[in-house]
């Protein structure tokens, strides 16, 4: 039997990232053996809009990862995002067939939970995630197999997407002779950055990408809400370009480099501004004209035409306005679903947008809770340094999601020359997997 590997591909609107991880036969921990990144084409706002261009970009990233790993892959876990992501919590109830609850009973309960009012021709179920099981009115059960009971209920979280969206992703990979298994990007990102304690306490994860922001909320160690809004880091870049009258490329360079120009005491978003409603900040700016010289910072080393110096306050206002809007949309969407953005463990910010300077303070003040930038964890190997930033949380989480998915199903389908599943390997993996997962 050949070595076991998992391939993950994050289909972003800005970049496509492919990662191949091998599973150590002794420790059963994932180790990165190949990675590739390509500029995204044919994907807009998390949705495939041009299959031909998308195939070309995916192939570019995948070939780079395969060349590094020294193998050719035939299956991959791929991210799926976009405004068409929808989630709801539902219950499934079945009668237990024997004296003990079996795997088949659990599967029937999950199938029962799937029979929700989702038009199958329009939407496709991507995930059915058990939140808890109830056996004869006894709740809070995580693993019911082997327990005695006559009635089994499952409280499940269901994530669905437009059928056409899922099919277009699958078609793009079919042209590359790769079988794609879609996973909601927000779920993968949460898997990559959260600790078990944060999941138990209750936490919200915001993966801020190029043009989308995914939302995932956990409560009592179970996923409660999933969603996506069509607003991301590129909107901040566009606002800086318009507000400062510079090119988009220069605005992106400024956004990613601004931190090094703000010294120890300047390395912050003005706390006074953050405590004042956005519509009053312009008046404050007019009132402080006398401090204009102190407000300017030298950014001449960035070589941005006609912008050797930058008003710190103007930069903060531009960024603050857009983040206010993003967080407000997130808050409204979560509230409409009947949940709260204010969780005991706070807000975890990840994705490329989490690299924005000062974003933690803005998030903390807006949501009224703690926040931190989420860096992915769980993967190792000598090549891991290439994918350690928050922008790689999704692709690392896809690897972990793939491990959990295939182990739970009792099937290991990656680079296995033996058609018969290695039951001992799967059983051993399942036991150890739970130890190193956050």
Describe the structure.
With 438 residues, the protein is of the alpha+beta class. The protein has three domains: 5-83 and 164-185 and 378-436, ATPase, nucleotide binding domain (Nucleotidyltransferase, domain 5), CATH 3.30.420; 86-163, Dna Ligase, domain 1; 233-373, 2-Layer Sandwich (Nucleotidyltransferase, domain 5), CATH 3.30.420.40. The protein is 37% helix and 26% strand. Strand 8 and strand 9 form a beta hairpin. The protein starts with a strand and ends with a helix.
* Overall tally of domains: 3
Helix amount, in percent? 25-40%
CATH architecture of the largest domain: 2-Layer Sandwich
User: How big a fraction of the residues is strand?
Assistant: 25-35%
The biggest beta sheet reads:
5 strands, mixed
Strand tally is 18
Q: Calculate the mean pLDDT score and round it.
A: 85
Number of helices: 14
Low-confidence segments, given as residue ranges, are: 264-280, 410-438
Give, in spatial order, the strands making up the sheet with the most strands. 3-2-1-6-11
CATH structural fold name of the largest domain: Nucleotidyltransferase, domain 5
- What top-tier CATH class of the largest domain fits best? Alpha Beta
The CATH H-level homologous superfamily of the largest domain: ATPase, nucleotide binding domain
Principal-axes geometry comes out as globular
- Ends apart, CA distance between termini: 29 Å
Report the structural category.
alpha+beta
The radius of gyration over CA amounts to: 23 Å
